[in-house]
Amino acid sequence: MTANTPPGARDGAEVAAAAATPAGSYLRVVGVSKDFADCRALEQVDLEVGKGEIFALLGASGCGKSTLLRVLAGFETPSEGHVILDGEPLDALPPHRRPVNMMFQSYALFPHMSVEKNIAFGLKQEGLRRAEIAERVVEMLTLVRMGEYARRKPDQLSGGQQQRVALARSLIKRPKLLLLDEPMGALDRKLRAQMQIEVVDILRRLGVTCLMVTHDQDEAMTMAGRIAIMERGRIRQVGAPAEVYEKPSCRYSAEFIGSVNLFEGRVSEQFPDHLLITSRSLPYPIRVGYAALVPDAAQVTLAVRPEKMSLSHSPPAQAHNKLSGVIERIAYFGSHSAYYLRTPSGQTVRGVLLNAQRQSGPRFVAGEQAWMAWEADAVVVLPA
Amino acid sequence: MSGRGGAALPRLMLWSGLIFLYAPMVILVVYSFNESRLVTVWGGFSTRWYRALVEDQQMMNAAWRSLQIAFFSATAATLLGTLAGIVMARWGRFRGRTLFSGLITAPLVMPDVIIGLSLLLLFVSLSRWIGWPETRGMLTIWIAHVTFCSAYVAVVISSRLRDFDRSLEEAAMDLGADRLRTFLWVTLPLIAPALIAGWLLAFTLSLDDLVIASFVSGPASTTLPMQVFSSVRLGVTPKINALATLLIALVGIAVLLAGWVLHREQQRARVARSASGD
Amino acid sequence: MKRAPGRERGFAQVARARLRWLVVGPPYLWLLLFFAAPFLIVLKISLAEAQIAMPPFTDLLRWSGEKLSLTLNLANYGFLLSDELYVSAYLNSLRIALNATLLCLLIAYPMAWVIARMPPGRRLVFLMLIILPSWTSFLIRIYAWIGILKNEGLLNEALLALGLIDAPLRILHSEAALYIGIVYAYLPFMLLPLYANLVKLDDRLLEAATDLGAKSHQVFVRVILPLSRSGILAGCMLVFIPAVGEFVIPELLGGAGNLMIGKVLWQEFFNNRDWPVASAVAIVMLLLLMVPIMLLHRYQARELEAR
Fold first, then answer.
1. Does some domain include residue B208?
2. Residue B216: which of C269, A349, C131, C262 has the closest Cα?
3. Structural fold of domain A22-252
4. How confident is the model at residue A16, as a pLDDT?
5. Exposure check for chain B: N or C terminus, fewer CB within 10 A?
6. What CATH number has the domain bearing residue B170?
7. Count of domains for chain B
8. Which segments in chain C show pLDDT lower than 50?
């Protein structure tokens, strides 16, 4: 529909990688804070989003992500800071004058209007000719595959259909920025996975810049090119899904996305290409496969993802990065199993093994002694 | 306690309560067709009291006057009450809010005799100071009715607005509609049922008022309740039964109609949804 | 596009302030003029003296030559307090309204409970059945009871026919008739707030209480009753306040022995044409009702508050 539709947008991974690097900053949020009567919902938020990017704000409920979305839509006035979209400041514009449209969490479809009237609503406000409105509504209905339901009322549609209509309604004005508020929040699990793919597909095809808010990490990781993790009104980390997962920058984002084993330690030796760290809870030193900018003898936190752990009955040959303990509990998830190892120091360490083969019996049983080991590259150094 | 079987006593109370509410009305209706003038004696089926009612010119005039007053009072009260309801439900704190909400609540419970007396004294004083209103009549009754009816409408509207999903209004603004258009195209159609309910409530309240109208009416502006009251004071007359029957029938038909429309809408939505599931 | 944003905001603010006035102004001014201001006039006239003229009361401020004199006549209030008739009418009204309110509560609570526990579709039907009578005429519904309660009325005839009594009971013009009338007329006003409150009660709370070993009367006293307190309060105020000043019911169903203050005010005004005393009666009634009205107002404000 628009000129910058990526040609042959088949390879999703390639497009995602391209979108991950912001092509200039199309949306800029500069030092935005928001105070309510009893609390500060946003604290000096800075954010840059590139044109055509799908960007997710991820955080627990009450972290301020929805407030930021409402500031962008114009429903809340920030106490401090500015919002700039495509070079134009938005601060003085009321919601109805902003080139920003939003898909609401509960969809907010007008119950007294048919599907086509709902979709046409935005264009009617612009005072377009009737013929043009009709043409663009049909175009949108086709895009979201709702053509045959044009005359239905919202309460006569299923959840997935309502969402398609809401998406069409928020896209028809060709907004410079599309806001999605918990886009899959009202759908059941099965439908959610299907709609995530469908929505991303439509957004990519139109090349629309999109900022979404969600508390569901799977949703953020599958839909967005980049993610910002928010906590208590602040942005903790911004990056592509793989970056945020593999290289968390702080304890909060390491723990918020996926699960993680954390070890407290002190830097004992620094080398040009690696570090050695000793931890009171582990008998062997930890080798980190890269040089981090930390002072000597600094207190640090080390993060290792459970799936980076290998499990064995006999002690591993390596001198570093291993521990032993008793298997306390095994949780079977079908595709994989999680093993909880209790070390002599009392820490429980989690390891995940893929159940790649159909097994006649378990390789490990609860109660037996086992070893865990991990690669030097698997360790992430976080400030303590 | 919450189960189906355990609540026998409350269930019995519900049904006896309903019988208590409806028995007097059923009796009224039955005896409106009684040939005899006496309440307790059944003299055979007859419609003579309906004829007598229609031929009672005073009663008919009063009814027509009351209907006019009720129509105009309900309309004005819906206008004022809607504005007040919006202020109550949608505005946060503002200067004078406490007084404002007091002015909405108080008329709901204020004894009629106090409202009637105070308005009459206001009208008398106003006409002495500024020469208006010159006489008391339909205009003063209208003012009085608008005053207390708009409080009821305000409560109906504001409770509807409170249940109303605000993101619908935000969606409209987000799509480019300013405040006024959002109100006209989204809010108003969605609170329309409450507006109708508010108007009907105001209409019946106005049609029903005896005490306030008695205070503020003039010599040539007897309303239907005043007329009924003066004949009831003299004792039971089957003409009033006939009038009551007509009123009950009217309300009954209106409610059945509304219920039927509502039911059909719900049915249609349900059928369409089950046919479209994905 | 390149307008100064500050200026534009200024215009928008002026326009919005004007719009706000357009919204709040008409109802505010109307209610101030026709609901609040009249009370001041009632207060003023309650301090005047009655005279045989039109209007039948004296001015408080009088201009005689060069002297401006203000006369506040407290005699009307003194008269109210000293005359047995008025004092007993006030006390009667409060007592009867209180008893009737409690009766309403006792009858309406189980009804509201049963309706609130019904499936949603049935709830609406029963709610409608409760409200329906109040959409017909109040006056006519009270009138209906005259035919039932009078000496040769239906109730007495039925009781006589059943052989339960030998001579007709004198119910009409007794205090019992007053209670029947008030409960009959005001039952929906008690039931609706109770229902609105009870319908929000989460069934799981009751199940949790039962699960934790509470017997059904304990569940009622410890869980249901405290949670429905605000509904009870609202219902009671909605019945009590107007019942104190009720005129039609004591006039048609009550008798000489149970005078209520609403009727006294009416007679003072229409029969004795003593406007100052009627005003004083109204002011004292208003003072008595101030506390219940405030209670109701607090509840109402919370219910209507925008979150």
1. yes
2. C269
3. Rossmann fold (3.40.50)
4. 42
5. C
6. 1.10.3720.10
7. 1
8. 1-9, 306-307
**Considering only the top CATH level, what class is C83-304?**
mainly alpha
Domain ranges of chain C: 83-304
Residues 82-121 of A with CB under 8 A from C: 89, 91-92, 94
pLDDT confidence of residue A380: 87
Q: Which of B101, B84, B217, B223 is nearest to B153 (CA)?
A: B84
- The pLDDT assigned to A9 comes to 38
Residue B189 lies in a domain: yes
Burial of A33 (0-12, 13-18, 19+ CB in 10 A): middle
CATH class assigned to A262-383: mainly beta
pLDDT of residue A6 exceeding 70:
no
Query: What is the interface pTM, i.e. ipTM, of the complex?
Result: 0.84
One DSSP character per residue, C140-171 reads HHHHHHHHHHSTTSHHHHHHHHTTS-SS----
CB-nearest to B273 from A110, A111, A158 is A158
Distance of alpha carbon A348 from alpha carbon B93, whole angstroms: 53
| Domain presence at residue B12 | no
Q: Round to whole Å and give the CA distance between C158 and C145.
A: 15
Residue A360: per-residue pLDDT? 57
- Sign of the dihedral through C-alpha C148, C149, C153, C154: positive
Min Cα–Cα distance to chain A from C22, Å: 21
Task: Enumerate the H helices of chain A as residue ranges.
Answer: 12-20, 65-73, 115-126, 130-143, 159-171, 189-206, 217-223, 241-246, 251-256
Q: How far apart are CA B51 and CA C129, in angstroms?
A: 30
Q: Kindly report the nearest CA distance between residue A90 and chain C, in angstroms.
A: 10
Say how far apart CA A139 and CA A173 lie, in whole Å: 12
Structural tokens at position B127: 């006409």
Neighbours of A37 (CB within 10 A): 5
Question: What is the per-residue pLDDT across B173-187, written as a single tens digit (0 to 9) for each?
Answer: 999 888 888 989 999
Tens digits of per-residue pLDDT, C129-166? 888 888 888 888 888 888 888 877 788 888 888 888 88
Answer whether A96 sits within 8 Å of B277, measured CB to CB: no
**Within a domain: B33:** no
Range of the domain at B194: 41-277
CB atoms within 10 A of CB A225: 24
